[in-house]
Amino acid sequence: MVTQSRPQAQTSLDELVSAVRAVVERQADWPHTARLVARVLERCLPSPEVLTAEQRAGDPRGHRSYPLHIEPDGTFSIVGLVWRPGQVTPVHDHVTWCVFGVIQGIEHEELFTLDEESEYLVEAGTNTNHAGDVSGFAPPGDIHRVRNAGDDTAISIHVYGTDVSRIGSSVRRYYDQPVVCA
Ligand SMILES: [Fe+2]
Q: What is the pTM (predicted TM-score) of this model?
């Protein structure tokens, strides 16, 4: 019998998809699901080769996202994000839970809260994530901005609890108001 071996990156993506599916099928609440998916991603973090060389090169116009898997029933998506040095997202929050793991480079995250009275953003902390680091969150309280703070292209794998191809992205809204210190 002839068996065809599959590329290592595809094998690890298949393992990640199966493991995330097993968690999502439990239909736990968002915070619990995010914690469980984070454990899965720590165990099954794909290598950068899960993206093509062209994708891994990044785009001088801004950070790019590449869907790697959309679950057929729309319950989750796995996306690769590629950032060149200095590239940054707008401040935003999300429509659903998200778990992400850095697989190359360094990503710096700034967290914010929204002051209900002034409508200003208030600084609420920072995280610096290196290759191998996994974290996650579930709305509300998930306003952030992410940048590539390193000298090399950064790549991360994001798992979202929705079909991002149907709704366009994981973003609920963007925030462009002033930021004040806590
Ligand atoms: Fe985000």
A: 0.90
